[in-house]
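Team,

Forwarding the record for the chain on the shared tracking sheet. I've put the sequence and predicted structure together so nobody has to dig through attachments.
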Amino acid sequence: MSFDLFPAVDLRGGRCVQLVGGVPGSEVVSLDDPLAQAVRWVEMGTRVLHIIDLDGAIQGVRINGPILQEIVETLDLFVQVGGGIRTREDAELLLDLGVDRVILGTAALARPEMVTELAADFGSERVMVALDVRRGKVTTEGWQRDLEKGAIELGLLFQEKGAGSILFTNIDTEGQLRGIDPEPTRRLVSTVEIPVVAAGGVSTVEDVLVLRDAGAAGAVVGTAIYTGKLDFKKALSALRA
């Protein structure tokens, strides 16, 4: 099975940022020109890109739409996008724009049938559901509210609803550069039959290889590649070895 390493370009206030635990104001990285940052990863060899509109996720307003459009139209990449996709119309707009895969979080949890509808119209491979977990519980509304259900229960539900993949984020390790806990990812991968992309705390080449060996279909890397803790080119080379 192939494994994709997704460099993250998180958008907030027109900038490329990385937050600790998704908390606004906790930026450890804040850079001008998100397109230039995306180009940087392309030049290092990526063929995929992970974009999250943090303003959309937190405020429900897509103020970073023009930047997102510029990245999608400029670069020939597989691009997955999430953050604030609240309605079917919003998802359709992004897919029609040329985004390869939309990531549904709060909207999917509130209305699971939306996953089924989009998968039927656009193909399940273009619909990913985000399961963001803090202390074992899935969160919603930009990580601001915890649910009583865990990732395995909801992973099985969305697999049944037609999702083509799952983005599994461990909030407890997100943005902290302390490494990963692979066990939750391993348990989810062993339970569902659709691909799982892992995120949260990936900070070394070893972390990347551990997630691959755990059966994940990919991993998202953010803070570590911006701060230099993880050499992105070296990680890509290790995956090809």
